[in-house]
Amino acid sequence: MSYDTVKNGLVETLELNSYAESEYTDFEVAPTAEHGSTFILTALSGNMNDETISDRFYDGQSWQVQVAFSKSGQNDIIDRDQANRKRDTLIQELDDPANWQSYVRMQKYSSWALQELKSYFLLTIQIKIIDQYVYS
User: Fold this and answer.
1) Which residue among 13, 15, 60, 88 has its CA within the 20 to 30 Å range from the CA of 4?
2) Contact 114, 126 (CB under 8 A)
3) In the CATH hierarchy, which top-level class contains the domain 3-134?
């Protein structure tokens, strides 16, 4: 496949869950209006999977999805609980084979972290992908 195929597949899954891709690469500079409604998607790394066949090879990739959630001084616990509920849904959607079988060989949720920053919560989800490249 290709970078665009993998990215478009991930974007489609996230958009089906009412998120739009942010125009920013860091929520630190993104407007607060984007909190809870946008995501930042990043291809982090890849490595040669040991499985190689004569006409193709498999690339083990690491991708990251980040979503910022608003935080208010009066409702921090409620805001954090809401971010964790959204995390549950996103992990299930990203890991569900029905959502990725058309564009990658394998896609699995790897880890997540919810970081409390000064004015928002930042959810980071790591995804492991096995992409297939066919020699032409």
Assistant:
1) 88
2) no
3) alpha beta
Judged against a pLDDT cut of 80, whether residue 102 lies above it is answered with: yes
Report domain extents, the chain.
3-134
Say if residues 69 and 81 touch (Cβ distance below 8 Å).
no
- Answer for the pair 112, 97: CB distance below 8 angstroms, yes or no: no
According to DSSP, the β-strands at 20-21 and 56-70 are: unpaired
Among the residue ranges 10-14, 76-80, 109-113, the one predicted with the least confidence is 76-80
Q: Say what the pTM is.
A: 0.89
